[in-house]
Amino acid sequence: MAGVEVISPAFWRGKRVFLTGHTGFKGAWLASWLVKLGAKVHGYSLSPSYSPNVYGASGIAGSIEETIGDIRSVDALRTSITCFQPEVVFHLAAQPLVRYSYEHPVETFETNVMGTVNLLQAARSCRELLAVIVVTTDKCYLNRELKVGYTESDPLGGHDPYSASKACAELVAQSWYQSFLSQINCESKELFGLATARAGNVIGGGDMAVDRVVPDVLRSVTADSGVQIRNPNAIRPWQYVLDPLGGYLCLAESLANKPRLYSGPWNFGPGEDDVQPVGRVVERLLALLGADTRWSCRPEPSLHETRSLLLDCSKAKAELGWFPQYSLEEALESVVRWKDLPMEEASHRGFIEMEIDKYMNRVGSETEC
Asked: What is the value of pTM for the model shown?
């Protein structure tokens, strides 16, 4: 479905963009896109936690400034961001895994909650800052197993430590805006826009994180072992990595131009046809891989999982002109194409640039990148 959003290379050319979590799956894709748009990027993140990964395969480290550091390290983060003096900030650094959050709840809350506090506090010292986007998750909602999508005004919550920590990060962002940035409470010049972005199950080439469905399938096929699924009937909103990232870029432009109008929470999810059960997605991916691998169900009663999770993206469609551009089938095909690429860095970098060009052609751009 063609959207009306316009991502403007003219806006991004020369912009100083501070990106936390740039070594992660989504972060490396976003860093590559920003560089292609002509932005000056400074990444702040831990080293990649798994290999191979998009960060290493793309060679993006050679095109940006970066600080390898922990978002919980107040002094290191403050020094990095104040020296760079960004105009736009994307905050993606997080502990992103549900199972890991059960095993390491303190680290999860420290990273996802206090890491957000540290970032927002450091951002207050940036004199030319226009926009900050804090990326959370669709799991930040109080899940009531609704058969309709959650809207941005629905209550926040979270059963597991990961989901609860992301709901807390949302509350931190709301508090920061109301306390320091809104017209009512702010008498200083700290008037940059602050928004949160809630995306669904993001998939795409290069994601090999542990305890995620698509990477787990790829590892099982490579190892010629069976695929085990905890909950094949769980319904999730699957989306290609460039769709939410395109939403973040579009939101950042709008936020920079009209901070009070666009500050607040935003959903970025897939079309209705791409809200599918886990088992069906696994079966389709195995078929695309041409694998004889079988999958089996191995429930984990101690691990709480919602049965159904949907997002209502009417706000982004109506106010940003953002629409998902890729189907689940296209997303899975992209995963398979990445897997089959030669190991050379140039192959992965070329693939990323080709995919970005394809996205930009679908949504339109003011000028060529």
From this structure: 0.93
